[in-house]
Amino acid sequence: xTSSPESVDCVVIGAGVVGLALARAMARKGREVxxxxxxxxxxxxxxxxxxxxxxxxxxxxxxSLKERLCxxxxxxxxxxxxxxxxxxxRTTKVxxxxxxxxVAGLKKLQAHAADSGVYxxxxxxxxxxxxxxxxxxAAALLxxxxxxxxxxxxxxxxxGDAEAHGAVIAYxxxxxxxxxxxxxxxxxxxxxxPMSLKAKTVINCAGLSAQNISRSIRGVGAPSIPPQHYAKxxxxxxxxxxxxxxxxxxxPGAHSLGLHYTLDLAGQGRFGPDVEWVExxxxxxxxxxxxxxxxxxxxxxxxxxxxxxxxGYSGIRPKIQAKGEPTRDFMIQTEHETGVKGYAALYGIxxxxxxxxxxxxxxxxxxx
Length: 368
Ligand SMILES: Cc1cc2nc3c(=O)[nH]c(=O)nc-3n(C[C@H](O)[C@H](O)[C@H](O)COP(=O)(O)OP(=O)(O)OC[C@H]3O[C@@H](n4cnc5c(N)ncnc54)[C@H](O)[C@@H]3O)c2cc1C
What we know:
Elements: E1 6-13, H1 17-28, E2 33-36, E3 53-54, H2 65-84, E4 88-89, E5 93-97, H3 103-115, E6 121-124, H4 125-131, E7 139-143, E8 147-149, H5 151-164, E9 168-170, E10 175-181, E11 184-189, E12 195-204, H6 210-216, E13 217-218, E14 229-238, E15 247-249, E16 261-263, E17 269-271, E18 276-278, H7 290-298, E19 309-319, E20 331-333, H8 335-338, E21 343-347, H9 353-367
Parallel strand pairs: 1-2, 1-12, 2-9, 5-15, 10-13, 12-21
Antiparallel strand pairs: 3-8, 4-8, 5-7, 6-7, 10-11, 11-12, 14-17, 14-18, 14-19, 16-17, 20-21
Helix pairs in contact: 1-5, 1-9, 2-9
The structure holds flavin-adenine dinucleotide.
């Protein structure tokens, strides 16, 4: 490490979709931005391990950041895709009640979403069957604003625009520690070309590592750092012909949106993610979960053939609540909460973080 740190205006830690969006937002405000990324490529962690769904914003508690930023982010992402030629598809989505006991929950979800300003059409079982002949359900909702996106292409376009506004990215540059300084924050990065930087503004967008980084920066108030928990989501790919043309979701569970069917832009169908609380980060797909996938899927697609599922991939949700605790909102802290002048940190940016990314960026950039 060098002894006298180089001065920079703004450092963004982490080049996932949120860090890239923030770097772009800050660069567009005329700030000089350096992105420090631990890996050798951008967007290779949680931003590469999700369902690539643009969520409409139907689930989140009223008044929460998730509600507000998902809805704003959804509109911003569609506009961005048009403006920058990013591939997406407005697939629409069907949320279903598996049996009569779930119909009240479905109606409640419809009313909740409408209160958020997101409207869905109620479908009787026969109407749902017309749309999706393979779906067995008691009733359903059609969400017209849901879509899928080429998330890598999206991140590439964000990075390109950030760079066009002067942002610079340094790969293989893991932030290892830092400290509060009188007029900013000093950050030390390791890797093959270690560096020390003094920045007026540092924004921690390190996803699953955000808490570790805050803990390593001297001066950040320990009580401000939330707990870190990991909830893995396993995906299984479907072999054979796609059974549905829309995204198909059961009613949401406490920590996930239920074991749903999505497809990528190439038409590859997949089921998941499930929820598996883990102590350590490990992306091996838990094949032992296969039987529970067959059982859950056959409740709404009884014709799922034996041996049609194969292990796909997994992602890990950066949870700030433990198993069994109520779901928490995105946690976005600026210097008022972190206790270090110029230091902002984002925690618990789980789903709908991809959808919300551009809105999170504008929200944070406005507050800095
Ligand atoms: C299973 C699953 C499914 C999901 N599905 C959806 C969905 O369909 N739609 C949706 O809207 N959202 C979805 N999400 C949520 C979405 O994927 C995340 O909210 C989003 O990708 C978070 O982006 P990020 O930039 O905060 O984090 P990340 O993508 O994890 O980026 C953090 C970056 O920080 C870097 N980093 C870590 N430590 C350091 C360090 N010390 N120094 C420098 N860099 C560091 C990492 O290498 C990484 O590149 C899903 C999430 C999961 C887990």
